[in-house]
Design goal:
Chain lengths: ~200, ~375
């Protein structure tokens, strides 16, 4: 049965959130979640890279990798595509918002190795999505990742004013919060089967 | 098999090449900021046009405008401050730790962090325009007293310097046995500013001083040294007021340079030079100063000893330099004073001059810290 692209889009955001259900892309999730502004910026960057690379990955896989029997080169080809698009995003962000550029710092180029992106690309190939589904899945995953990081940033911003046991300050409490958020999201998983 | 392999490699290379072209295009069109005009100090002829995209510090240094910087543009020394009035973009988090509230209000930025993305309007201290790094050769080291040397440095590259008498340069002491890194120390220019191809510095030994120890014990005639400058706003003001020079030890240097200037420019102002020393052995340049008295009819040299030895047969004024100045016959309210020496001496002199009624804005000084 063909799952509608719209369903995949919303499922990728809410019920099969790439971060809170699949736990991909944790590294920058924990590091850039201290301020909402920076996390929105990084979220948008990830969404852009994920959406564009999903479309390209679909075409590369469908028309080049499979016909020429070079599925084993999928990883390297996908990573090269991701790296190129991250470079592009870097050039664009440096041009339009130097402050965001400085705030994201090393995590901007590190989107390249954000496993949420490579993970999503591999998912859409494994799950045999068509073109529309691929784009919907890519954009949904990106927005889902952004939703998760912005939510965590919001909580962490308010947490500045609350008493945290010293041993749990920083990443410790962030991981516990992520766990609680994840519990809420896992509760919805399976509502829309997308694979 | 080989064909398949070649095909696969070719495809991967083609994909890579395609992406490289895409990035090259982005670099050409998105990261291209075009030519940017930097207007400096509202002056058209000091303005420069540079290719955008780099940082401001680099753009200025490329055009031989030396902004002080110790870290070389990594944003870790906080020295390269300039005022950016227009076009500097938002303040970056990398700059804020180095800027005071006052500086933030005055548009001060770290030039190594400001990107040149559009036309800029900036303000830098005018004296920075003539600052250069000079390579020179020590042509003479002369003992002026038992603890003061006169260094003559012939300039090699650039081979001439333009400075206002009274300004100072920084001498670089390289790494040597007593110091594992190069250090800069400031010394006033003692030479005649019309002689542009060499400079003279007066260096008095500071016990355990890194730079002076190097000069006294290691520096040899013929050796190459590096200086940069000129710096400072200690120079003769163009007024008709009577001049009172006060100096001690190597503080004579900038005043000697000013006296050369007065001779060349025909400045005929009533002037007195109080030069303080402990004993005759600390006095130097006495003959040269008396020659200035011949060339400048209204100039008087007044060396004073605070602790004359029996063998000195000293008949001139004695006592601390402040006491000698205090006894002097001057219209203090109308005169200008130029002081150069140790901080203690300068503070004491300012006090005496103020008591005598000299307004603060007629007192100029260069403290040797």
């Amino acid at each position: 049965m063909e799952i509608p692209a719209v369903a995949i889009f919303f499922a990728a955001i809410f019920t099969s959130n790439i971060l809170l259900v699949n736990f991909l892309g944790m590294c920058s999730f924990l590091s850039i979640s201290r301020e909402i502004k920076a996390s929105v910026g990084l979220g948008l960057a990830v969404t852009f890279v994920l959406t564009t690379t999903s479309a390209i990955a679909y075409f590369l896989n469908e028309y080049i990798l499979v016909p020429f029997g070079m599925e084993h080169l999928r990883y390297i080809v996908f990573i090269v595509v991701i790296a190129a698009f991250v470079q592009l995003v870097e050039i664009v962000i440096e041009r339009i918002s130097p402050i965001l550029y400085i705030n994201l710092g090393i995590f901007l180029p590190l989107i390249t190795v954000n496993c949420a992106i490579l993970g999503s690309l591999l998912f859409l190939v494994i799950r045999d999505y068509n073109f529309l589904q691929s784009i919907a899945f890519g954009a949904g995953s990106g927005l889902g990742w952004m939703l998760a990081i912005v939510a965590l940033a919001g909580i962490r911003q308010r947490m500045k004013y609350s008493k945290v046991p010293p041993a749990l300050e920083g990443p410790g409490i962030a991981l516990i919060i992520t766990g609680l958020m994840s519990l809420a999201f896992v509760g919805f998983s399976g509502m829309i089967p997308i694979q | 098999m080989v064909q398949v392999l070649a095909l696969h490699v070719g495809i991967v290379v083609a994909i890579g090449a395609l992406l490289a072209v895409l990035l090259e295009l982005a670099d050409r069109f998105i990261a291209n900021y075009g030519e940017c005009r930097i207007v400096i100090n509202e002056s058209e002829d000091k303005s420069i046009t540079v290719d955008g995209g780099g940082n401001l510090l680099g753009a200025l240094v490329d055009r031989k405008i030396f902004i002080p910087s110790a870290c070389g543009g990594r944003g870790s020394c906080g020295l390269c401050k300039v005022k950016v009035h227009e076009g500097g973009g938002p303040l970056l988090p990398t700059e804020t730790p180095y800027l005071s509230k006052e500086e933030l209000k005055n548009n001060v930025r770290l030039s190594c962090q400001v990107k040149v993305r559009n036309d800029l309007r900036i303000e830098i201290p005018p004296e920075l325009f003539s600052i250069r790094e000079f390579r020179g050769k020590v042509s003479r080291i002369l003992d002026r007293t038992y603890d003061m040397k006169e260094l003559t440095i012939d300039l090699l590259e650039p081979d001439s310097i333009e400075f206002k008498p009274g300004q100072y340069v920084q001498l670089t002491a390289p790494e040597y046995a007593k110091s594992d890194q190069p250090v800069y120390r400031a010394y006033s220019l003692a030479s005649d500013s019309t002689h542009r191809n060499y400079v003279q510095l007066l260096i008095r030994r500071v016990p355990d001083g890194i730079c002076t120890t190097w000069v006294f014990d290691y520096l040899k005639q013929g050796q190459e040294v590096s200086i940069n400058g000129p710096y400072g706003d200690f120079f003769l003001r163009p007024t008709d007021r009577e001049i009172i020079f006060i100096a001690g030890g190597s503080g004579l240097a900038p005043i000697r340079s000013m006296l050369f200037e007065m001779v060349h420019e025909g400045i005929d102002r009533k002037s007195t030079f109080y030069y303080g020393a402990q004993a005759r052995a600390d006095l130097s340049y006495v003959e040269e100063m008396h020659e200035f008295e011949d060339k400048l009819p209204r100039f008087r040299f007044m060396p004073a000893l605070s602790n004359p030895q029996q063998t000195d047969e000293w008949e001139g004024p004695t006592g601390l330099i402040t006491e000698v100045v205090d006894r002097g016959d001057h219209d203090f309210k109308e005169a200008e004073a130029y002081l150069c020496g140790s901080p203690g001496m300068i503070d004491a002199c300012i006090k005496v001059l103020s008591v005598k009624g000299m307004p603060g804005d007629q007192i100029f000084y260069d403290k040797f810290a």
